[in-house]
Amino acid sequence: MSNLLARTGRLQNAVWTFCTAARTEQRSMRGNPLLLVNAGFLPVVLLIIAVETQRPAPGRAAEIVVSVTLTALWGSTIWTSGGVLRRERTYGTLARCVCGVESPTLVLFGKSLGATLYGVGTILASTLGTVLALRLPVAMAHPLLMALGLVIVVVSATTLGALLSCLFLLTRNGLTWSGALMYPVFVLGGLLIPQDVLPLWLRWVPQLLSLNWINEFLSGAASGRPSVTPFIIAVLLTVAYGVIARRTYQWSIDKARQRGSLDYA
User: Fold this and answer.
1) Which residues does 168 contact at the CB level (< 8 Å), separation at least 6?
2) pTM of the model
3) What is the pLDDT of residues 199-232, one digit of tens each?
4) Distance (Å, whole) CA 208 – CA 189
5) Rounded CA Rg of the chain
6) Over the range 90-122, which residues count as b (16 or more CB within 10 Å of their CB) and which as e?
7) Distance, CA of 106 to CA of 86 (rounded, Å)
């Protein structure tokens, strides 16, 4: 009985830590100009460009809206959840994040979830407002599958953001890498630009991005042609992101502790 109570207490502490990290990061996102640009303005601009040249049919309109939403989410992930650890290092609070009682990985993923939820909420509000203003005939053949897709969007973007945050922590030039990764994925990520128009030697790039497979799943669900394969691949990639992020984060913390330079990890 005492062991069960101890495990329950540890679980409650872990959940409290995770939720607190998420709430703290959400509060820090308020008024973030990069979030306003990438999650607020970018979907509006991309949608207007994509649909005003030629009014799409309902099925095609849904595909465009999904692609624009996920493209904006990539930009938001790069600059928000992808910069979680970089911001902690800048503020001088990185050591406190990794030296608490609970696992530092738990704190990282909690912060990444907070940033992702704030970004997704802003993108959805901006996209919905633009769709209504443009009066786009968006089809939703399988709304329940699309809701499931939205869940995997949040989970995958959170994990991808945690991975990017760990990778950016390993270099002093994380800000430069953020900008360098953003626009190439816009072109090569298989979102707004179809894979079949890419050069043959570059068509492997979208296969590594979970958002590409989520795009395929959501577009199929919206147009009435759902397929479980893209969903499964997106989940597997998300798990891979999480494993790599956890190991990279732990490795960087261990190396910083060995050097006695945790504040500068």
Assistant:
1) 82, 83, 85, 86, 174, 177, 178
2) 0.89
3) 888 888 899 999 999 999 999 998 888 889 999 9
4) 9
5) 19
6) eeeebbebbeeebbbbbbbbbbbbbbbbbbbeb
7) 17
